[in-house]
Amino acid sequence: LAVHLDFDSLILRPMDDLFDVMLRKQKDDKVAESLAVAKLTRSKPVDFSRPIDAAFTRDYNSVKKPRPDSPVGYQGGFLVIRPSLAVLERYRTILQRGEFNLNPRTGWGNKFGNFYGDATFQGILPYYYEDVAPG
Q1: Backbone φ, ψ for residue 18 (5° rounding)
Q2: Nearest Cα to Cα of residue 82 among 15, 22, 26, 6
Q3: Rounded to an integer, what distance in angstroms lies between the CA atom of residue 69 and that of residue 54?
């Protein structure tokens, strides 16, 4: 796994449960029990029978006009991913095609934009993990 933390991050408890889930070190029936964050009210349902390739936090403060259906970027200070050459190649293809729409600023795939950091990985990550390769 690769973990990205901003220098000003503060980790208040161990992340072993998250790492174990992503590395599939637990049986599927024990996974949901051990990862309490997946039960939070704002969390999207997690299918623990499939590999988890990325863990992140959303940046709700970056949305200019928050609505329940507003696209929300990922917070740039915390990200855990399972590195993959296939995913890297898909990212490269997305970047080479220039799938970020600037005028009007609708962002990646015409739906992940118009929030702080939308042109950076804070915008392309939700586009990739929620639109290109959801799950």
Answers
A1: -65, -50
A2: 22
A3: 22
**Which residue is listed with tokens 């449960």?**
17
C-alpha torsion angle, residues 131, 126, 72, 117 (rounded to 10): -130
Cβ atoms within 10 Å, residue 126: 25
Q: 19-67 pLDDT, tens per residue?
A: 888 888 765 556 556 666 555 555 667 777 778 888 888 887 777 776 6
The pTM for the full model equals 0.75
Dist CA 75 CA 63 (whole Å): 11
Using DSSP, state whether 84 is helix, strand or coil: coil
Query: Closest Cα to residue 100, out of 89, 90, 111, 92?
Result: 111
Residue 44 is given by DSSP the state P
